[in-house]
Amino acid sequence: SMMLRIEDMGVTYPRNVLALRPTTVDFHRGEFTVLLGLSGAGKSTLLRSLNHLVLPTAGSVISAEFGPLNSRRTVRQHRSRTAMVFQHHQLIERHTALQNVLTGRLAYHNTLRSLLPFPRQDLELALHCLERVGLADKALTRVDQLSGGQQQRVGIARALAQQPSMILADEPVASLDPATSEKVLGLLRDICREDGITTVISLHQLEYAQRFADRIIGLANAQIVFDAAPEELQPHH
Ligand code: ADP
Ligand code: ADP
Fold this sequence. Notes:
This protein is α/β, with parallel strands linked by helices and about 240 residues long.
């Protein structure tokens, strides 16, 4: 079923930089979608517009749950259910894996709440999320002591702790070696499958997209050039 729709949505940056031509796309519940394209194609712009980190300059984003993102309230509601994973994971390096997962969760609590000690249930949830990504034994390790792949998995645990209905991951494996990239993509795909979390990630490698995606949306020069299941695309070697 439809989870999020972009309708005639386009983005033009200041100085008239056209980053995304107005386009209409439905994202479906539990689907693992890869936005595929070269650098500058518009992947990050499309991805970030899905939770209004980039503000569309045309058209709209419509959440099945909250309606059109046309007020601060609906944007806030939608963001509270939409977790982000970044290329450079944006963890606090001097903090432990557990602290990072908890802090991500705190961002969605109010200020007063953040002054109180962590309730046991938050700690248990954070530990459970670290377990999901295979890092239960690193909970108390500072993230600057972890490998790049492990840091990205902490970023995924932090996203999971938000108990999202949607995960947006912007080039989540761009800084990782191939073996680690495959592990991280497999993990994101498994979480999507097991929890039914609608997942949209941007990538520039066709092989990974074909291997992990349910759906590939290809972007070039600020527009969608294909939208298909991976088996409908012929690999070119
Ligand atoms: P991709 O993620 O595929 O590399 P982007 O969405 O980052 O593509 O960029 C699409 C186009 O928009 C590029 O031409 C890029 O230079 C431009 N762009 C991206 N962000 C900004 C910005 N904040 N201001 C102006 N132009 C931008
Ligand atoms: P992953 O596949 O999760 O990225 P790696 O295979 O890269 O893990 O790392 C294997 C082990 O080496 C891990 O237990 C990790 O603690 C350690 N390690 C890797 N890189 C670093 C690093 N830069 N600093 C500290 N430890 C590291």
